[in-house]
Amino acid sequence: MKIHKLLYLYLMLEKFLEKVLVLSRKDKVFEDTNPIVRAFEFNENVAHVFDDMAQRSIPHYRDVQSMAATLALTFYQEGSRIYDLGCSTGTTIALLLNGLKDHNLSNYYIKGIDSSAPMCREAIEKISSIDYEKDRILIEEGDILEEPIENASVVIMNYTLQFIDPLKRENLIKKIYRGLNHNGILLVSDKTLQSHTDISRIFVDNYYNLKRKNGYSELEISRKREALENVLIPYPIREEEELFRICGFEAVDLFYSWYNFSSFICLKKGQ
Ligand SMILES: C[S@@+](CC[C@H](N)C(=O)[O-])C[C@H]1O[C@@H](n2cnc3c(N)ncnc32)[C@H](O)[C@@H]1O
Ligand SMILES: O=C(O)C(=O)C[C@]1(C(=O)O)C=C[C@@H](O)C=C1
């Protein structure tokens, strides 16, 4: 066989394998071919397809990630720690790492914490393809309610606070406030409620339209809604802002908002 024919076959095979890999990582957790999930969990099945799930279920996921990384780099203090609480597959950490490298910052320490072992494995695999000093990043399987926060200039908690027992949220935010250096920030993204139920309903309708547009069926949408009941507990935006304020943050603002999803920046002011 001629060499160019062999090369062509090789390229076709590579494309085919790429497609198989992408398809195997497609979120089918709530499809009718799979057993019903009663209560949503970040288990092996979810971790394996989480990147696809997040991109198709979280509005403007990539934009929020990149805005959070930009803000983190703006407030990062040389020699301090950056925490990613509920780091899942390490997407934010990978972005941060690339940003720190672009800015020639080398004296950093990043800690990603997640209570799901399969998520931690995915995160470790994702960042393994990036060149960095190994002792500058730690991905730890642990409970963010238990883990200490120390010498932090940036704490990121994207789409994680919504999964924490509401009775434990205040202590967690107070602990983060105490662990932050002055002029440090907490970035939080969550699904939120509006101040009036009529408006909340319309925003949720728009959210489900986005899921339909992103390829989820009615069955997948309703199965996931049921599985998330009492697992993901959203707060009204004003209440979430108030929570950050009563825990000490002197300045609280939105850095991103899309119908029923909001991203907050909370600043611990200087002395
Ligand atoms: C929606 S995902 C977060 C997504 C991720 N931050 C991102 O932006 O791609 C929520 C994560 O929080 C983790 N989680 C939930 N409760 C936790 C806890 N108490 N301690 C640590 N991780 C927790 C879950 O295992 C899950 O990986
Ligand atoms: O509320 C929903 O239906 C979602 O799918 C949202 C959401 C989230 O915001 O974390 C829930 C679980 C997954 O982690 C991805 C997206």
UniProtKB/TrEMBL annotation:
Domain Methyltransferase type: 84-186
Keyword Transferase: yes
Annotated GO biological process: tRNA wobble uridine modification
Signal peptide location: none
GO molecular function, one term: S-adenosyl-L-methionine binding
TM region positions: none
Keyword Kinase: no
Domain of life: Bacteria
Catalytic activity of the protein: prephenate + S-adenosyl-L-methionine = carboxy-S-adenosyl-L-methionine + 3-phenylpyruvate + H2O
Binding positions (S-adenosyl-L-methionine): 61, 86-88, 143-144, 158, 225
EC number(s) stated in the UniProt entry for this protein: 2.1.3.-
Keywords: S-adenosyl-L-methionine, Transferase
CDD domains xrefs: AdoMet_MTases (cd02440)
InterPro entries tied to this protein: CmoA, Methyltransf_12, SAM-dependent_MTases_sf
Family: Belongs to the class I-like SAM-binding methyltransferase superfamily. Cx-SAM synthase family.
NCBIfam families per the UniProt record, alphabetical: carboxy-S-adenosyl-L-methionine synthase CmoA
HAMAP family, per the entry: Cx_SAM_synthase
Function: Catalyzes the conversion of S-adenosyl-L-methionine (SAM) to carboxy-S-adenosyl-L-methionine (Cx-SAM).
Annotated protein name in UniProt: Carboxy-S-adenosyl-L-methionine synthase
Lineage, top ranks: Bacteria, Pseudomonadati, Spirochaetota, Spirochaetia, Spirochaetales
Gene: cmoA
